[in-house]
Structure formats: structure tokens, C-alpha cells
Amino acid sequence: MHWYSDTNAHLNYFLNLPTPILLVICDPDSKECYWSELKKDHIDYKVNNWRFPIPKSQKLCRSSIPALEEIFGTPENHLSEFEQDNELLHLVESGSYIQYCVPRKDIESRNLDNLKSFLKRITRNEKLTLAVQGSLHISTYGYEGDHREVYQIKAIRKWAKKARKKVDSWYLCASGGAIPSTLTWLAACTCNIDSKPKVLTDGRPGYEISGLPKEWGEFVEECFAGLNKATDKWDWPISKNYEISKLIFQEVFPDVPFPELDENT
To answer: How far apart are alpha carbons 42 and 53 in whole angstroms?
Structure first.
């Protein structure tokens, strides 16, 4: 039997930690180490110090891994997740755009967890956030056989109204029209609009949207608020905020001029 000994102050510190404690001692001559998990019931407490038994059979080596995993759990490779982020970054930087499809089951259950998890992942580092901005299109999936526009489908409208209030990363989708517009269909689903049937240029039935009310402006302001949060988080300059703000505005109000940037205000 080996014995680990230490000060009482350290003992109190160890026992207050929220994680298991592994005690390890090393034989400097043989260069072999021995281990044991600290357990309160096996402590030999003295007035000025304490000691703890460490069996000679518990040599710290590769064969100790299963026992240690029972104490601390199996380690996960978190780096692989960040490596996937780099792969996504390279993909976006190559000129591709990202399409995230919200499945019908999420829409009809009004589940936002999967979308929010995805958005959280792509905004956890600044470089990826900037690369994705303007290259992200969010669409619905599962209504391909439905002849109606998305803003006419009740389930999508209900999902969109919830998503609009619970998600603050819509600025990522603003491309100024370079990719399919997420902001337009989201605004159409959550705001009052005037529409009438029309025949599209390819002969398919469609709708002409007009009379954009003040609610569309309120949606733009919400997108600006999400952008401002990202600006504060990453300490972006006013020029970057203005650049993305303009993309948001032009996408929702393509025929309305956006004010010029005055950096003195």
C-alpha cells in the first residue's frame, strides 16, 4: 500500500470541488505512478494533516483507462465540431451559399430548436459569422406538392410568427437579392399583405404582392436589432453594421432608397 499525504487546507479544498478527485503519486526511481479516487470515507485524518491509501495494484497506465472513464466519463472529441466549422467556412468562402430547410414536422409542431441550434453553431466565431452573412437561405421543406405560396399556408405562418420573435439572427440571410430571399417570405408570412392572383412569366399561377404596410418596417427594425447584438458581440465598426443594414433594407424594400451613412452621427 502507498499513502498520499497532504495538508488539511488542501483536503477541505478538494472535498468542496464539484468534480471527482484523482490522487496520483509517483515513484521517482521507477518512474511509475499509482492512483486512486479520493473518497471521504477512506481518509485517515490527523490534527495537522491527512493521508489516503493508494493500492500498489492501481498503477497508472493504459489499462487504467476503463476504470478512469467510469469515474470521469468517456471523453468526447469536441475539436471535430470546430473542424467541421472550418469545412463550412471553406465552402462558403468558395462562393457557395448555404440552404437550411426547415422540415414540415418542425413547422407543424412549431419546433425552433433545430434551427436555433444551427444558427448558434454558425455564429460562435466571428470569421464564420461574417462568411455566412449574406450566404444563408432558410426555406421550408415538405410542402412541395402544395400549390399555394408559403405565406398562404396556415402552419407555415404560425411557425414563422413564432420564429420571427424567437430568432435574432435573420441578418445572416440578408444578401440584397444575391440569393433567394428568406426575409421576403418571412415578412410575407408574419405581416398583413395585399395579394391577387397573377400568371407568372413561366406560365405558372402566382400572386402579385402590394401594399406593404408598416409591419414590414417593424420586421426590418427587428432584423436591425439582431444585427446590433452581433455588432456589439464582435465589436464591428459602424461601416460593417451599415453595410449589412443596407442589405436588409434593400431586400425588404427594393424600391426605396436607403439613407447614406453619416459616421458623424
So the answer is: 8
Residue 194, C-beta contacts closer than 8 angstroms, at least 6 positions apart: 209, 210, 211
Q: Is 182 helix (H, G, I), strand (E, B) or coil?
A: helix
Burial group, residue 160, by CB count within 10 angstroms (0-12, 13-18, 19+): buried
Spatial contact of 107 and 156, defined as CB atoms under 8 Å apart:
yes
Q: Which three cell numbers stand for residue 28?
A: 521517482
What Cα–Cα distance (Å) separates residue 190 from each residue in 145, 160, 182?
A: 22, 6, 12
C-alpha cell at 146: 402544395
Tens-digit pLDDT profile for residues 85-135: 788 788 777 777 889 999 999 999 999 999 999 999 889 889 999 999 999
Cβ-count burial of 228 within 10 angstroms (0-12 exposed, 13-18 middle, 19+ buried)? middle
Measured CA to CA, the distance from residue 42 to residue 25 in angstroms comes to: 17
Amino acid at 183: L
